[in-house]
Design a protein that fits this description.
Blueprint: E1 2-3, E2 6-15, E3 34-43, E4 46-52, H1 53-59, E5 60-61, E6 65-67, E7 72-75, E8 77-79, H2 91-98, H3 103-108, H4 113-122, H5 125-141, E9 144-150, H6 157-173, E10 177-185, H7 196-216, H8 219-226, E11 260-263, H9 272-285, E12 288-293, H10 301-307, E13 312-315, H11 321-328, E14 333-336, H12 338-343, H13 352-357, E15 362-364, H14 378-388, H15 393-400, H16 402-407, E16 425-428, H17 435-438, E17 445-450, E18 453-457
Parallel strand pairs: 1-5, 2-6, 2-7, 8-9, 9-10, 10-11, 11-12, 12-13, 13-14, 14-15
Antiparallel strand pairs: 2-3, 3-4, 7-16, 16-17, 17-18
Helix pairs in contact: 5-6, 6-7, 7-9, 14-15
The protein binds N-(iminomethyl)-L-glutamic acid and fe (iii) ion.
Length: 459
């Protein structure tokens, strides 16, 4: 018998989302990898064993055992696309939209993203950290244990670096694990209106090199190098997240480092040539690639990003059939963001059903941001995707766990219940995982375990 720090046993369903080291594509997305009467053994922050309760208790013993009878145990959710570091709010814009103005009209009139830019430029690092930490608290309560966060509300070097500082501080102090993305190409700032090519040059010649320098001096970089997982103390329980005591393991997969570039290729944002310049410069520097493509208009950036080996292409509302074929044949993950469509009152959604049927690997994210998706909840996003994009609950689970982990370069270390991975687990207050997409608006998370430490017992 092997001694371990924690055993979770008797789960009505263990939703493993296991994938054997690959994102789940096409029909494979339908299988959430259920083990009935399942158990997980956890040692030193990692998963030591997964199987039927009888097998696991036959192989492992622990002084700390959680009985998950009549409950579901699943991987912690991964939110693979967010913009949660920002100043101010967009409540006035929400009212304008309720009255009938469109997102693009508001953007053209100088509102939207650039209005958040002014508020973010005014904010201190501390203010950005404390407002984003509250957002992360809510996401964690709803089951999210890993979050990608983008810059993109600075749009000048000083404020973009300030946002990166805030993102690094959040990773150091919050229980949620963070993956950083550099999005200086989010919008054209007002001072560069009419000089879009010059702003793109500034991004390529000054901001990308400075952001890479920042990254190389940050804990994200050194952590990727070290990846030392110290022995964990035994699990603790309590309602207060033990943020600073959480030993974060590296959020890497091969190749080791995860710092992403992103670009918003859209009318009134960056055209295809400008987006290409940003993608090419950044990938030559060492960044991995993501791109906001086809949210409102298809400018051709999806195909380009796939050809350049992008880790993900995101939004995909207007993606063509040819591009869906290209995506299906690639290693790129398609991230769809249906909370945006819901929030903007649209009846049209990205064709995620067709994408899965054609063999793509799809992830679901909230796109949590102050304008197009003020939504912290991956379960609500799953509920929307099931209804409007016709994903089955099992597909939605894979889309917020294993595929989302691959979409942030962390698929080898998290996103599924498999031996050797980080022990990021949720215990859900239901005996059938499908209920979490069916009964929307309720929080099913009863207990969270992050890196093997029981950090929250609640709801
Ligand atoms: O993903 N599309 C561009 N960026 C965000 C919106 C940001 C905002 O409105 O502040 C998005 O939808
Ligand atoms: Fe976005």
């Amino acid at each position: 018998m092997k001694n371990v720090g924690l055993i979770v046993k008797n789960a009505a369903q263990l939703v493993t989302c296991q994938s054997n080291g690959m994102p789940k594509k096409g029909r494979a997305m339908m299988d959430p990898g259920i083990i009935e009467d399942g158990a997980v053994a956890v040692s030193n922050g990692k998963i030591a064993g997964v199987g039927k309760t009888a097998e696991i208790v036959g192989e492992f013993r622990s002084e700390t055992v959680i009985n998950a009878k009549n409950q579901v145990v699943c991987p912690g959710f991964v939110d693979s696309h967010t913009h949660i570091v920002f100043g101010g709010d967009r409540l006035d814009e929400f009212e304008l939209r309720v009255k009938g103005a469109s997102y693009l009209e508001i953007m053209e009139a100088g509102g939207g993203i650039v209005s958040t830019v002014s508020r973010t430029r005014e904010a201190s690092v501390d203010q950005l950290v404390s407002s984003a930490a509250r957002r992360l608290d809510t996401m964690l309560e709803l089951g999210t244990t890993t979050v990608e966060i983008k810059t993109g509300y600075g749009l000048d070097l000083k404020t973009e670096l300030k946002m990166l500082e805030a993102i690094a501080e959040l990773d150091k102090t919050h229980e949620i694990e963070i993956i950083p993305t550099f999005l200086a190409a989010h919008a054209i700032p007002s001072e560069w209106k009419g000089n879009e090519d010059e702003y793109t040059d500034l991004i390529c010649h000054e901001m990308i090199p400075a952001a890479w320098d920042w990254y190389q001096n940050s804990h994200f970089y050194t952590r990727a190098d070290g990846d030392t997982t110290e022995d964990q103390p035994g699990p603790t329980t309590g309602s207060t997240p033990a943020a600073k005591s959480v030993n974060k393991t590296s959020n890497t997969q091969d190749p080791a480092r995860n710092f992403f570039i992103d670009v918003f290729c859209e009318q009134n944002a960056f055209n295809l040539n400008q987006a290409k310049q940003v993608i090419d410069t950044a990938s030559a520097t060492g960044f991995k690639v993501k791109a906001h493509v086809d949210e409102f208009t298809n400018l051709g950036c999806g195909s380009y990003a796939i050809q350049r080996g992008a880790t993900s292409i995101d939004h995909l509302d207007e993606t063509s059939d040819e591009e869906i074929e290209l995506l299906a044949g690639s290693n790129t993950i398609g991230i769809v963001t249906p909370a945006v469509n819901f929030n903007l009152g649209s009846k049209e959604f990205a064709p995620a059903r067709k994408m899965i049927d054609r063999g793509c690997a799809i992830a679901l994210s909230t796109d949590y941001n102050p304008g197009s998706a003020p939504c912290p909840s991956l379960p609500l996003t799953m509920a929307i995707a099931c209804r409007y994009q016709r994903l089955l609950p099992g597909e939605a689970f894979n889309a917020v766990t294993i595929n989302a982990a691959f979409a942030v370069g962390a698929g080898k270390s998290s996103g599924s219940l498999e031996a050797g991975k980080q022990a990021d687990l949720l215990i859900l207050d239901t005996d059938d995982y499908r209920q979490t997409a069916y009964e929307f608006g309720r929080n099913f998370v009863a207990t969270r375990i992050k890196n093997g430490i029981v950090t929250g017992v609640g709801s």
